[in-house]
Amino acid sequence: xxxxxxxxxxxxxxxxxxxxxLALWTALVVVGLTGLRSLLLGPPxxxxxxxxxDPAAAFPTQAGMAAAALFASDYLTWEPSHRDARAERxxxxxxxxxxxxxxxxEAEQEVEQVVPVDIEVFDPGVAVATIAARVxxxxxxxxAREWLHLDVPLVADxxxxxxxxxxxxxxxxxxxxxxxxTHPPAGSDSSAAQELAEPLAAFFRAYAEGDATEVRYLVTDxxxxxxxxxxxxxxxxxxxxVAPGQGxxxxxxxxxxxxTGSATLTQTYLLTVRRVGDRWYVADVGVPLAxxxxxxxxxxxxAPATTWTDPTDEREE
Length: 317
Prior knowledge:
The protein is of the alpha+beta class. Strands 1, 2, 3, 4 and 5 form a 5-stranded antiparallel β-sheet that branches. Strands 9-8-7-6-10 form a 5-stranded antiparallel β-sheet, covered by helices on one side.
């Protein structure tokens, strides 16, 4: 009996030995094939290497969307008796420029909901986030709710921190125009700015109304610019700056005063404009982008920040 048990145990052991040998040979075959593949095809591409060459992969998009959403909520919430508190909330990003972002008028507005919609990365440290916000507007005449969309300029410091670099601008609901990488002009062309004052005023009036026919007349044939569909009304074009250059396509900024309800907001847009014959057309509209190396940097000394200013501009106090 004992001998039979030993033989049975030995038989079971032989099966274990064979199973172990099979596993070992399988592992050796896999290793051998992997090595052969590496010899023939080279090592596999590392995901981190590919990510390093992709600006979107280098930008902390989740942190950017969160920062933009929080800022949009502060930016679109106001109460005439608490202007200083609003400016203080935004000053961490905008500094003294936060006080210049105050709306005028006696209306109250509060944000009920913010939704990050999209983020577009232009350079490894520069991006624009699109935020949707549902606002409750209260003034002497009416109370209304509506959705607004903002483009918020962002810059990342390379360590994962993200900050807002400028005042957001009102934009149509997505899809966005997909503008190419452009930065605000550092110099000035006063002649082009003077020429652009009238067509840009007409463009922003049509842009506010969402008049598709009029907008198409004022933009280039390949432009995807839409309109605000009445979310704000155009009050005036305050300033225009055009980058120096000789070609038909130029980069410009335009400072616009909007009216929303009984309040007014002043926002600066980054534009790509193109001259065809003797007329200027708008090719793209967006928000000015800061340099990742110098967030919020001003134009070089000696280059005026604006080259055309509405001579009848009288700001409301």
